[in-house]
Amino acid sequence: MAAPCISYFLLCMFFILIMMSGKMLCTAVSAGQDTKLHVVYMGSTPVQENGESHTALASLHLEMLHSVHGSREAAEESLKYSYGKSFGGFAAMLSPSHAQQLSNMDGVVSVFESKKLKTLTTRSWDFIGFPASAQSNNLDYQSDIIIGVLDSGIWPESESFSDAGFGPVPSKWRGGCQTTSDFPACNKKLVGAKYYRSSPNYPPLGDFLSPRDGDGHGTHTSSTAAGNHIKNASFYDITQGDARGGVPGARIAMYKVCWLDDCEEADILAAFDDAIYDSVDIISVSLGSDFPMDYFQDSIAIGAFHAMKRGILVSNAAGNSGPSRASISNYSPWSITVAASTIDRKMDCELLLGNNMSIEGISINTYTMEQPWYPLVYGGDVANVSGGFTSNVSSGCALNSLDHTKVEGKIVLCNYVDDPPDYSVFIAGGVGVIIISDDFDDTAFVSLNPATTISTKQGKYVLSYIKSTSSPFAKIQKTTTSKALAPIVASFSSRGFNPITLDILKPDITAPGVDILASWARNSSLSGNIGDTRISDFNIISGTSMSCPHIAGVAGFVKSYHQDWSASAIKSALMTTAFVMDPTKVGNEDAEFGYGTGQINPMKAIDPGLVYDARVDDYVNFLCKEGYNDATLRLVTGDLSSCDLIQPSKNGARELNYPSIMLSIIPGYPFKAEIPRTVTNVGAIESTYKAIISSPSGTNVTIIPNTLSFSPLNQKLSYNITIEGGSMLADELVSGALTWSYGNYTVRSPITIYALAK
Ligand SMILES: *[C@@H]1O[C@H](CO)[C@@H](O)[C@H](O)[C@H]1NC(C)=O
Ligand SMILES: *[C@@H]1O[C@H](CO)[C@@H](O)[C@H](O)[C@H]1NC(C)=O
Ligand SMILES: *[C@@H]1O[C@H](CO)[C@@H](O)[C@H](O)[C@H]1NC(C)=O
Ligand SMILES: *[C@@H]1O[C@H](CO)[C@@H](O)[C@H](O)[C@H]1NC(C)=O
Ligand SMILES: *[C@@H]1O[C@H](CO)[C@@H](O)[C@H](O)[C@H]1NC(C)=O
Ligand SMILES: *[C@@H]1O[C@H](CO)[C@@H](O)[C@H](O)[C@H]1NC(C)=O
Ligand SMILES: *[C@@H]1O[C@H](CO)[C@@H](O)[C@H](O)[C@H]1NC(C)=O
Ligand SMILES: *[C@@H]1O[C@H](CO)[C@@H](O)[C@H](O)[C@H]1NC(C)=O
Asked: Structure pTM?
């Protein structure tokens, strides 16, 4: 259930309860009436020159604020941030009319309300064919790579971030470490850490006013991206194995923008402004918004654009709003958008009934129940009637709806309604909970007390057992793991199409994001519930939050081999070498709208053969065709680049040199499209690639020329793709692919054609 004041979130699946409790704290703000925190985005200018003082910029921003507020004091009071290290702009408390006035001023690209974003292993690396032995190659170069993570902070004492064996901090590093009494120091692995909190200037209950992680999420994502290799990382003996990040030899810089209450866009932009300047190589952002926004009204798209200008690839989570169509939450073409898929491990949690039936549920239950049996009741039979609750409400075990005298010491059967009922059963004195839901058949959750999730059909059986006897009993077993069919796109993973630019495929790629083991913050609740007293160095959680740092880590690994590659070249290498997924498997029906080009394949990504490069000019062309005006783009790029010669065009996005090919068409009419692409040779010096075409059903695809002969490295060659098709039904999706092949190199671009719903 999305809290109404929150439209962005950390993209991890179990955070609901913490966010709910945090909601109470997110009301204390406000200087004047009706003022809200806004971002005033001013593009690439003015940006402070190297070493120039920040005060000159701040005074420009104050002048602008002065002119709308009418007083210097009000201007000073309202200004929260002056950006200017990597792009121009500021954040301030503004009324709607002041925001409007500022948006009309020269130099302003956009003014938007700073929305509150919520936070939406390592078997996973073996599963995708990325052994630890391969990661230990190229360690010298890995150690020059710095992964910047925008998240909820970090637990610096975790073994994942120990600097044993690390050489000096790379000399390019320009960032800092914000030390406090509860965050004593960074080290040669965790090279930087800062926190950003525009208001209020105290932490939410249970959090720290420092870069320390009060929540666990940031520790988990950072260790997934670039954590050290830890032998024998066990989570309550449920999973055994090593924990390691994607690029374990790299350094980490944490930018804490998320707190137990929320993540504020004004803070996110301040972190981007620093991270780009600090010279990180890759940025991982497991955050997103609930609804589509224009590129320059979206803090993450803005930050990623300026990062791309400096050659920094930003990895974004696709969102956890699947499986509905067009639910994707990060879609800018200059970043890489990551879906979440399963690994081949399932979390089984067996339910035993007193009639000796065994039912296989799914859950991460760390507990071993001591007695042979516990009495079993159905929530609907134990309503707290005197408290005014009906059996209808108590069947979902809503908070306070259970009569604790009838629940004490028992296992309770509950329908899943809006929130996991483990907390409400726990405070009513229950010892365990059986959750009936068909929504979580692919994802397990760590529960506060012994719990297992079963299907509606299984739920009916358990209920009939309860009714069949005067003394029903049950027991919930500790979780064990088994082999599962994989990779399958997680049901929660947000799906395409791209709501803002129909002809750019999103998501771009998928990576493991279901039941991922990684490091955890020792002060943080494992289940997200207040009252959970377990302390662990590791936790298992799910979300596109977890898949996103897998891609950031691999991007860092690729960059350690190719330090001179652009952000788009690295992104292309990841996309064109991905494992091809099987759309006929249950769960993968959305094809590219579920998994993009497929599942990340790190070992191939370091040597892709050819790349689809794109630089700032290419994205500016794209934006011109999308109808952004000249003046806006001059500000955004900070030079005189202009749309003079480039008209807005309906199908212009198809011409962006993107590693995948996407056509959105009108249903019911035949169509023809001609799409240009350019590839750069980064493989063999002398090489001749042939086009292998798999036409989407009902279409004919022609490639001209269909052979590309390269002689020097870095040579660029162009070709055209012509796609002709008959009429398609509304909401129909067909897929094919173009693969350039030479020797062991296969450079694959899916061709996805979607007929829009009417
Ligand atoms: C973190 O845990 C320690 C030890 O249990 C406790 O003393 C401290 O208050 C906790 N900090 C926060 C912010 O909850
Ligand atoms: C790994 O950890 C488990 C539990 O923490 C322990 O029982 C086991 O002996 C350890 N194995 C190795 C090889 O250290
Ligand atoms: C369940 O199994 C146990 C041991 O096999 C047996 O003693 C008991 O009678 C069985 N109960 C039922 C209800 O079948
Ligand atoms: C419970 O109430 C809801 C909404 O009022 C209704 O749709 C549902 O059918 C009821 N369920 C039962 C079991 O009575
Ligand atoms: C019923 O709910 C009320 C109000 O929440 C609470 O005070 C009371 O203790 C509950 N009674 C039982 C028997 O659980
Ligand atoms: C692709 O098509 C365009 C427009 O028809 C043409 O100008 C260009 O030369 C073609 N490129 C190649 C490589 O054939
Ligand atoms: C594809 O080409 C074949 C053979 O030239 C032709 O018969 C068919 O009509 C074409 N289909 C489309 C959709 O253009
Ligand atoms: C292809 O891979 C094989 C085995 O990995 C290797 O021996 C061979 O040299 C490779 N060929 C090319 C053209 O790279």
From this structure: 0.92
